[in-house]
Recover the amino acids of this structure.
């Protein structure tokens, strides 16, 4: 048994006893109404030694390896509890600080992230800068040893309950878009920061708009190089995706993906074998058929193929469920459905072709 296995067992054991204390498994984004429960859960994880597993000990972490973090995230997923308070603080900001922060910045910010004292939000998107993030227009102008920020952010998850935010703002309007941006650590309670819930069509307000008016930031709010915020953000985001990959871990993701591909292939091959089999049987007159019958037989064959595919899928689901992977299976359910429909479409194509050939053959005789 490896060290990580021993740790994973301990994590599972602890979760069995404490999962009932956790808020519902809300995933990576903290819903504002669960902020208090989320913070309490993060504090409990910190006290029990399940926070910042691969972060340095001097900043509140455990000094373990990313494999331990992966084992924890997997155990939390199996227990259906949030593995941490939120992705922006515990993965993105933490990752950015570890990679680009000064020792002072790390000392100031990392521990409150791990204890749940500070909730972080992400201030990247703007009304006219979504997918094309580098076109953002929020500005940060240097005044003495401070930065003054003006602009508007949007789609900010858990902004209204956040204590701190990571912000992208333009520091050099004359530079090419990606090169004139800086990455800041913002106090969400600072003067000039106004957060307004964004009402969606369904009446819910999951996101916030954040208005920044003459917000004065200290010099040490800048993380990384002055105009190099794009690199910091991309580094942090890749850290985030690393976190997502960890949570889905090879142990869960790869067997399911393989199963997904194999089940689709089995369906496809079965559909092909049955439809071609019927076609050959008609061609060599092993069975004598009336006009139109091959089409119905092939349709039936495709339906059987599809049914077999569904059986394999259901078996796979129950296997996954037995192994606590139900949530991941639900994630791929839609993809699998699409693949099933795709397979059926291929079979229908074959059937159409067969039917045409049959009619030609019939006309020829
Ligand atoms: C659940 C969730 C939580 C989020 N939380 C945060 C957060 O906390 N903080 C934050 O800053 N942001 C957040 N976002 C915003 C997100 O990260 C993106 O910035 C934002 O969704 C994309 O911007 P937009 O909505 O303006 O879409 P647009 O940029 O307008 O894009 C709309 C569509 O057009 C397509 N498109 C755009 N440009 C082109 C092009 N040139 N060619 C072809 N197609 C194009 C896009 O692919 C997309 O399908 C969140 C988003 C989601 C879904």
């Amino acid at each position: 048994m490896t060290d990580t296995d021993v740790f994973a067992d301990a994590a599972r054991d602890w979760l069995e006893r404490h999962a009932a204390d956790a808020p519902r498994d809300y995933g990576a984004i903290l819903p504002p109404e669960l902020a208090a429960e989320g913070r309490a859960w993060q504090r409990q994880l910190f006290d029990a030694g399940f926070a910042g597993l691969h972060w340095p000990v001097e900043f509140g972490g455990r000094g373990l390896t990313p494999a331990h973090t992966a084992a924890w995230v997997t155990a939390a997923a199996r227990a259906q509890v949030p593995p941490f308070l939120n992705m922006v603080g515990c993965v993105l900001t933490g990752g950015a600080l570890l990679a680009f922060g000064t020792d002072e910045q790390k000392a100031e910010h990392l521990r409150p992230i791990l204890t749940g004292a500070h909730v972080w939000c992400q201030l990247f998107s703007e009304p006219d800068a979504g997918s094309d993030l580098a076109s953002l227009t929020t500005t940060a102008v240097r005044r003495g040893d401070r930065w003054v920020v003006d602009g508007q952010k949007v789609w900010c998850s858990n902004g209204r309950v956040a204590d701190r935010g990571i912000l992208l703002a333009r520091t050099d309007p004359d530079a090419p878009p990606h090169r004139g941006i800086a990455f800041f650590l913002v106090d969400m309670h600072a003067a000039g920061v106004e957060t307004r819930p964004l009402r969606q069509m369904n009446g819910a307000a999951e996101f916030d708009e954040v208005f920044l008016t003459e917000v004065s930031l200290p010099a040490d709010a800048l993380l990384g190089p002055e105009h190099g915020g794009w690199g910091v953000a991309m580094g942090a985001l890749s850290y985030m995706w690393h976190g997502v990959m960890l949570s889905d871990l090879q142990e869960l993701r790869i067997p399911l993906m393989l199963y997904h591909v194999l089940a689709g292939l089995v369906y496809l091959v079965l559909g092909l074998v049955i439809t071609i089999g019927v076609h050959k049987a008609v061609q060599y007159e092993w069975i004598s058929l009336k006009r139109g019958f091959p089409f119905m037989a092939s349709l039936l064959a495709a339906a059987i193929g599809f049914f077999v595919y569904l059986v394999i899928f259901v078996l796979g689901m129950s296997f996954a469920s037995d192994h606590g992977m139900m949530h991941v299976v639900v994630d791929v359910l839609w993809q699998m459905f699409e693949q099933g429909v795709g397979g059926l479409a291929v079979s229908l194509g074959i059937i159409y072709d067969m039917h045409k050939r049959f009619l030609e053959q019939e006309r020829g005789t």
The helical segments are 3-18, 35-48, 66-79, 87-100, 103-115, 229-283, 293-322, 326-364. The pocket of flavin-adenine dinucleotide is lined by residues 29, 121-125, 130-132, 155-157 (CB under 6 Å).
